[in-house]
Specification:
Strand content: 5-15%
Radius of gyration: 17 Å
Distance between the termini: 32 Å
Oligomer: single chain
Shape: globular
Length: about 180
């Protein structure tokens, strides 16, 4: 993964992430990580405390800019088509790491991410024609696909890894987030 920049020049931290474990998700979605942005314990979602100007290993990056060797696809397979949009990159990176490969963040390379331009759900790209002309129904569906992807990932990779009480808490959190996104 390269250093992914937003149009503003700010880093897009979605290209520098940890896996969405229950703890990482709780601290991220509760905004607890914002109170202590340099804490590695409270900001596992975006892997805080790493030197963003030096290459290092990460858990996952978004699919907007990935360079992948053919041998990785040969060993772990292709994208899981169960995901419509969102989450397929998280799933793929999880399988890559489970297969013993490393995922590297390489800040000497950079790309600009027009975040939300394709699906029309971000204010920062509402000036782009495709994003601005997406129907209300499309924007709503895209918001809901984010939580659908979360459910798919947790079911596929974590349903047997965590006890029932933790899974119930996670699914309740995802449902709550889905309700919030339904309102907007």
């Amino acid at each position: 993964a390269c250093k992914l920049l937003l149009r503003s020049g700010k880093l897009d931290m979605d290209a520098h992430r940890g896996f969405p474990t229950p703890w990482a998700a709780i601290t991220h979605f509760s905004k607890l990580n914002k109170l202590f942005p340099e804490s590695a314990t409270l900001n596992q979602y975006f892997l805080a405390g790493r030197d963003m100007n030096s290459p290092h290993e990460i858990d996952l990056c978004i699919s907007h800019f990935m360079l992948i060797k053919n041998e990785v696809f040969a060993k772990v397979g292709l994208w899981d088509e169960t995901y419509f949009v969102y989450g397929e990159d998280v799933d793929f990176c999880y399988r890559v790491k489970q297969a013993g490969f490393k995922i590297m963040y390489l800040p000497q390379f950079s790309a600009v991410h027009y975040k939300g331009a394709t699906v029309g759900i971000r204010k920062e790209t509402s000036d782009i024609q495709n994003a601005a002309t997406q129907s209300v129904e499309t924007r709503k569906r895209m918001k809901l696909e984010t939580t659908r992807a979360m459910k798919l990932f947790y079911e596929k990779h974590y349903s047997k890894k965590y006890p029932l009480i933790v899974r119930q808490f996670v699914y309740t959190g995802i449902s709550f987030l889905e309700s919030l996104r339904n309102l907007s």
